[in-house]
Amino acid sequence: MSQVPAATRALRVLRFLATQADPVPLERIMRACELPRSTAYHLLNTMIDEGFVVHLAEEHRYGLGVAAFEVGSGFTRQEPLARLARRPLAALVDRTGHGAHLAVLHGRDVLYVVEERAPGRPPLVTDVGVRLPAHLTASGRAILAALPASQVRALYPDRSAFVERHGTGPTSLSGLRSILTDTRQRGHADEDGEVTPGLQSVAAAVLDHNAHPVAGVAVTFPSEAASTAEVTAIAEAVRATAALLTRRVSGPAAGPAAG
């Protein structure tokens, strides 16, 4: 059992229900997930309250709820988004001469799902499958800046949520809020040396039809070699690419300034 047994049990229940053709009685869930009756009952009630499980009272059976569908559909959205992003990211690399990537938010991390490397440039830490703290990355900041303030607050309830890599970056919710405000005002997010010393990134968010940020598009380049004019040009290219992907996923024609 993990250090968070309740979470492990909840995931086991979800995985089991997802394999069933129809809703099932409590006893089958208990046996399949090796749960005592009282534990299964209270766990299922909590999952019902959160929308992950539905109780068919007349049949005395349980099935997957709408929230479980939303999680699954989120995955199916991300995979097509990765396909849609490859050519625009390749064009972004051609336009800027630097590596570009697409990242999605997973909890307080960003997960990199597409990377296009610029010819002759060294590989970056933002390889596909890598996770990094969202509050330190340009991609993560672009996404966070487009989220409701209440959701950002829920993600970062206290200082323990703010991990560090190189002793830089925000260490409190007020510090993060200041960065996100600047991000919205500028129209793009940035970070300089907070992920990898000597490298800088700029990013903008891709929005869906609800103006919800589904991903962040970013370009990473050497800090010292980039003039102010070049950074401005890169930011414009990143925003244009994010806007293109927003249109391709039926997002708003004009959404929040940055991601």
Radius of gyration: 21 Å
Distance between the termini: 38 Å
- CATH evolutionary superfamily of the largest domain: GAF domain
Class of the largest domain in CATH? Alpha Beta
Please describe the biggest sheet, giving its number of strands, its sense, and whether it closes into a barrel.
6 strands, antiparallel
Unreliable segments (pLDDT under 50, ≥5 consecutive)?
A: 255-259
CATH architecture assignment name of the largest domain: 2-Layer Sandwich
Features:
259 residues, alpha+beta, Arc Repressor Mutant, subunit A, Beta-Lactamase, 2 domains, 6-stranded antiparallel β-sheet, 3-stranded antiparallel β-sheet, 8 helices, elongated, disordered C terminus
